[in-house]
């Protein structure tokens, strides 16, 4: 071929290549235009139009994971965000497909270049956004453990991720940690954010500087979503824009700010558009400051929380300060300054927003509960539930409404209120509904058991085989059937179904979960649950700790909050948690002994009572109950000498008892049990109920009554008479003591005295040998 032929061929090839490039550019231009149109429709709430455009994109780029990802999200919103499980299935399929394509691409490169290091574009088949959306969906469903398990691998390699995505992962992990009351995990994530973004535990200097994303990260990211993964994002805002390189682009959200709230809801979620890959650190600093306050409230470090919330107010002076005011209200609530907490709650203005009016009413209901105004508290909780219901029905639907829905938490609070008012059937219904969220918490099983026991004490349960009563009048008459300890209202869709066997099952669940929690706690003490794959972060942390040991007081005075102080808060919180778990375990075992005695299982009752007495640092009140229940069980097992040994532990002479515990012990017990471990407020919601534990003098009277019963069963009626006289002096209205006195009078031939005492009781049942003193 001559040179002219060669030149002609080259020219022909060049022309063909130019034509192909032109066609590719045209196709890419069309897909880019379609992607932008889909994004615009999505943001406008036109989900059907968005899906139609995405179908066109899929025809041009068949089975592209990013298109399928966006289609799944658009379909989810089109269906009113009601099919979360379906969304999870589709996102998991997209993630699997991305991973398979990435693996195939690596194999293809390796085949062409064997023996070389294989690298595939990290953006081409990156499944990070899809994985993040899966975690977000689980978060919206209140499945925090699942969400966390998905995020942890991302967090361990967070140094390789785009900084915007890293922020979203970090904020979501912070919210999960707060939701789970996991201060250890919170501190690990916050420590990373402090070092990675330069705003966190350090000084309180304010500035308006901007944070620059590194030059090789986020070049095609169009917006920053601070804590967005727990608001109307990522599922709403990660609709991928089909750019020339098909990079994931996080879309902006129409709303310029997010709702403010407390509890398991994310803090002040602000959305700012990126301009030249930079954004002001002021908003991020406010976000982290608010999270810092929430951490201090979680760990009960109220002194530092007071100082830090003031700093948050200073940062928020020219911004929305509603979240800071809300946290300040929460701080006053934790201090017991309920009137001040109420004023700050009103000033926060969250009742004006439909998305947070439910939180306002719930928190106000908690305050009124603490003030003893149960009726007002009940009305506010009901109003809060109505607000949550209306939030779910808002159009257009937002995934934020799902995580914002606190109806189950408020329902739990309502259950506590009913329990305090002595309405166990209604309380049980509330706890059963709330168990969807709290089923892994020992406390809710304790509460359900208490409902059963209160129903028994209120005469709502009957031990007879079958009993039928007529309730209501006229057309509202219905049968109330009591069978095998169960109570049901015939024809009622909201029937109570409480029983002593149910109480036993609930207590068993609570004990199992508590033991599991204690085991996991000991494991987590040995090694952190999260680790960041960045050596420099660990080195910096070690250096910081070394410098801070001797200067923490000085730094605190200057307004900084260093790692040592945060670690100190964490250590103190672990001690508080340990004490709380010990109290819960004491209550579970004491109630188990009580229930087993009621079910006439003295062997199991004795085992529970002995386990209670063997607990280290057991409260004097629960030690007292342990001895009483053990004595009763032994009496039923015909072991009176051993039963007497338990009662004689409090003898100070042949015929006198010392106080089993002092008033100070009683007051301390009430203070320790005045808070619940799960509530919408991050601090304590309030008393589960004022328990019917005996006051010290009444407990002493119970000892006299029980020893009298024991002596009577052994035939020592004269000694028993003296003991029961002491008991009735201290417990003049106690039915069990009166019945014991009746029995002793009859054994001594004093029939008239026995008859006189019987007239004092309208509902009594007595089994010889049973010690009938109870405390729940």
Automatic annotation (TrEMBL):
- Annotated spans, Disordered: 525-555
Superkingdom of origin organism:
Eukaryota
What is the protein name given in its UniProt record? Answer: CCR4-NOT transcription complex subunit 10-like
Record organism: Camelina sativa (False flax)
The coding gene here is LOC104732525
Q: Which InterPro entries match?
A: CNOT10 (IPR039740), TPR-like_helical_dom_sf (IPR011990), TPR_rpt (IPR019734)
Q: Where is the composition biased (Basic and acidic residues)?
A: 536-555
Family from the record: Belongs to the CNOT10 family.
């Amino acid at each position: 071929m001559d040179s002219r032929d060669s030149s002609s061929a080259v020219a022909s090839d060049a022309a063909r290549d130019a034509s192909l490039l032109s066609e590719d550019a045209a196709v890419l231009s069309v897909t880019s235009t379609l992607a932008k149109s889909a994004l615009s429709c999505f943001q406008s709430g036109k989900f059907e139009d968005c899906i139609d455009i995405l179908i066109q994109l899929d025809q041009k780029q068949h089975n592209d994971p990013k298109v399928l990802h966006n289609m799944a999200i658009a379909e989810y919103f089109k269906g009113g965000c009601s099919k979360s499980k379906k969304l999870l299935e589709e996102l998991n399929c997209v993630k699997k497909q991305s991973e398979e394509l990435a693996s195939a691409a690596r194999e293809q490169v390796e085949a062409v270049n064997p023996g070389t290091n294989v690298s595939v574009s990290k953006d081409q088949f990156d499944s990070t956004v899809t994985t993040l959306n899966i975690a977000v969906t689980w978060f919206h469903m209140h499945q925090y453990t699942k969400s966390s398990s998905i995020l942890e691998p991302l967090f361990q390699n967070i140094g390789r991720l785009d900084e915007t995505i890293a922020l979203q992962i970090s904020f979501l992990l912070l919210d999960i940690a707060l939701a789970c009351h996991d201060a250890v995990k919170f501190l690990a994530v916050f420590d990373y954010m402090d070092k990675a973004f330069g705003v966190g535990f350090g000084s309180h200097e304010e500035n308006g500087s901007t944070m620059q994303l590194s030059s090789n990260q986020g070049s095609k990211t169009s917006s920053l979503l601070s804590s967005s993964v727990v608001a109307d994002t990522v599922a709403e805002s990660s609709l991928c824009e089909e750019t020339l390189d098909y990079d994931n682009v996080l879309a902006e959200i129409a709303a310029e700010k997010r709702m403010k709230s407390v509890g398991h809801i994310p803090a002040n979620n602000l959305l700012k558009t990126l301009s030249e890959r930079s954004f002001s650190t002021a908003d991020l600093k406010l976000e982290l400051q608010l999270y810092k306050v929430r951490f201090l409230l979680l760990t009960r470090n109220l002194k530092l929380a007071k100082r830090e919330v003031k700093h948050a107010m200073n940062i928020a002076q020219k911004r929305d300060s509603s979240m800071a005011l809300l946290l300040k209200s929460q701080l006053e609530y934790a201090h017991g300054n309920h009137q001040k907490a109420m004023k700050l709650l009103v000033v926060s203005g969250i009742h004006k927003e439909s998305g947070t009016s439910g939180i306002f009413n719930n928190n106000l209901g908690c305050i009124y509960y603490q003030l003893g105004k149960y009726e007002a508290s009940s009305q506010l909780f009901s109003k809060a539930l109505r607000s949550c219901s209306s939030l779910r029905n808002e159009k257009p639907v937002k995934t934020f409404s799902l995580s914002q829905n606190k109806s189950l938490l408020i329902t739990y609070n309502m259950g506590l209120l009913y329990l305090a008012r002595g309405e166990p059937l209604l309380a049980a219904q509330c706890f059963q509904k709330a168990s969807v969220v709290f089923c892994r918490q020992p406390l809710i099983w304790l509460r359900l058991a208490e409902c059963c026991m209160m129903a028994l004490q209120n005469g709502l349960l009957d031990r007879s085989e079958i009993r039928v009563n007529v309730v209501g009048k006229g057309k509202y008459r219905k049968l109330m059937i009591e069978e095998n300890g169960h109570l049901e209202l015939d024809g009622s869709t909201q029937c109570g179904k409480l029983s002593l066997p149910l109480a036993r099952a609930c207590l068993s669940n609570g004990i199992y979960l508590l033991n599991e929690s204690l085991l996991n706690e000991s494991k987590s003490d040995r090694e952190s649950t999260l680790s960041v794959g960045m050596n420099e972060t660990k080195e910096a942390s070690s250096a910081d700790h070394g410098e801070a040991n001797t200067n923490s007081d000085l730094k605190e005075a200057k307004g900084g909050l260093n790692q040592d102080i945060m670690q100190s808060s964490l250590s103190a919180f672990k001690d508080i948690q340990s004490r709380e778990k010990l109290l819960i375990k004491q209550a579970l075992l004491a109630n188990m002994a009580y229930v087993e005695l009621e079910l006439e299982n003295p062997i199991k009752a004795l085992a529970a009572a002995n386990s209670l007495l063997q607990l280290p640092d057991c409260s004097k009140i629960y030690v007292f109950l342990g001895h009483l229940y053990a004595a009763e069980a032994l009496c039923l097992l015909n072991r009176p000498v051993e039963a007497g040994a338990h009662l004689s532990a409090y003898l100070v002479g042949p015929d006198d008892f010392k106080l089993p515990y002092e008033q100070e012990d009683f007051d301390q017990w009430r203070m320790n049990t005045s808070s619940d471990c799960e509530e919408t407020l991050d601090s304590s919601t309030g008393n589960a109920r004022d328990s019917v534990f005996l006051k010290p003098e009444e407990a002493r009277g119970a000892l006299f009554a029980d020893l009298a019963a024991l002596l009577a069963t052994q035939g020592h009626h004269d000694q028993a008479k003296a003991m029961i006289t002491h008991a009735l002096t201290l417990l003049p209205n106690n039915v069990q003591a009166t019945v014991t006195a009746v029995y002793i009078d009859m054994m001594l031939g004093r029939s008239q005295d026995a008859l006189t005492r019987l007239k004092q009781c309208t509902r009594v049942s007595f089994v010889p040998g049973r010690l009938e003193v109870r405390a729940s």
